[in-house]
Every structure is written in C-alpha cells, then in structure tokens.
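Let us work through a complete example step by step.
Step 1: write down the sequence.
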Amino acid sequence: MRKFLLTLLAAKAVAQSGLDLPMETAEPRGAVISLIEENDKFGAFKSDRYYTQGLRLAVQMDPHTYFAVTQEINNPFDTSNPNPPDTDLPYSGVLYFSYGYGKVLEREGRRDCLFSVEGQLGVTGPDSGAETVQNRFHQLVGTDQVKGWGTQIPSEPVANVNVEFRRRFSISPVEYPIRDLILRGAFQAGTIRTEAILGSQIRWGWNLDQSWGQGTIRHSNAYSPDFDGKGVYPANFSSWFFADTQLEVVLRNYATNGTNFQESRQVTNRPVVLQFMVGATVNIYRMTVAYYMAYRTKEFETQAKAQSFGGFKADIKF
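Step 2: predict the structure and record it as tokens.
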C-alpha cells in the first residue's frame, strides 16, 4: 500500500513539473461555463430507451450564483413502434431554465460543506423540442428515425425548486490526502420531479479538497464549484476516480407520471430507485473534463429492463 501511495505522489509531481505552473493563483475566479451531455449510447447497453439523452449548459457567474439551460429526452423500449403500448414509458421531453445560489460553508475554519438552492422553469411536450433534436441527430449520424413521437405527452409549463447539501470527509492519512468521501442529500419539489435523494461518492486522486464530486443532470443542481470557498482558482492539476451510490424516493416524475393538468400517457413509477455510477475527472489549469457511466434499477412497474447511460462534462474557467 505504501509503495502504491508513493507511486501516486510521484506521478503527481511529474505532471505538475511538466505543466510548469504554480499550484494556486490569488486572482479572483471569473465565470465558468459547463457543458454536460448524457446519453444511453454512452452506457453499457448502448440503446435508445427510457432516459435516452440529457444536455445541460451552465454558467457560473461568480462563486455563488449560476444559471443553466437543460433539455431531457425520454423514449419507450421500442422506438420502431409508432404506437407503443400503454404499459411502456411514454415519449416525453422537457426544456427548462435554472437559476440558483450556492455556497461553501465554513465551520470552525473548515470548508467541508456545500449548500445550493435552485429554481427551475420550463415546458414539457412538443414545445420542449425533444422530437426535433432526437430525429435530426439520428439523421445526422445515419440511424433510424424514432417513430412514436406522435404519442408524446402534451406541452405544459413546469416548475421546480431543488435544495441540495453535501458534506466532504477526508478518509486518508494526513500525509497522503488521496481519498475522500462526499455524502449528499437533496430534495426536489415541483411538477418536473418531486423526490428525495441520498447519495455517497468515494474518490481517489489528487487535490480533492478543491472540488465537490460529480452529479448527474437529473439528480443534482447545476452548482458544482471546484474551489474550497476562498474564491480563487484551484490547483492547476487535479485528477481522481470515483464510485457513487444513490437512493431516490420518488413521489412524482413527469417522465413516468405524464402531465399534471391534462390527460396524457403515464405509467406507475416505482417509489424507490437505486443508481450506481463510476467515472474519472481530470483538471488541467482552467479546463476540466469528466466521464462517468451510471446503472439504474427499474423506474416504473412495467419496465422491461434496467437502464445504463453515460455522460461527459467539460468546464472552461475564465
């Protein structure tokens, strides 16, 4: 084990010397632009079913405030059937704007807690543009068109308020700070989703104290700072692997329960859903790139199979 730790520290020193950059700069951080793409084609099953795509563009304007635009797309199991059975997940999409506030909390000199609150406002159905985006993408890559969008849930305005809290624990010796644990809890309430979320993420890598782990589009706020709360740029090199577990207690979800104020297709959602995720992140100077793959248990009672999807995230700091 000691030899392994020494190897990691030596690799870190080589990477930093190759970059020839200082570990931290005192200049205040500016805006951060983040782009996340999630798709079941990046997952283990490489399919077009259930939660099939998510795209989020987020801008963090200062250490506390941010906004984002997100689109989600959902399909039934069989996308070649123009009239899928009522027991399958309905076609649906949602497009929403988010605005939020987040802060790294200081407790007795320690900056190991993160709090964020986010409001979301958007629309489901044809007005979300999900059908257009999916079929034009399929046309671009030369795959079959999805044929059942005529049965999608109707357009309807939606709104949500999401609160999230994270606590970070170091679980490594002081002289080798290469491992930590992040516990999180979140509550989402509104017409997009109403659910409670509990999760944990263990990470192995370098400079972990300057970031707060990786979340997925649907189950974490867009606030994801990579600094410890002092408002300065982080170390110029950091990297880690992570493994994540998540439990969701679901009361309502537009993708399974359909619209709120008019009739639409719907299925009976499962009250408890589990998610398992692994991935890796690399930060070099002002750019961060992450990849992750998630596996989810069934989300509704008549679901034929479980689901897997993957995601890519890129941050550019100004």
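Step 3: interpret the result. The chain is about 10% helix and 50% strand.
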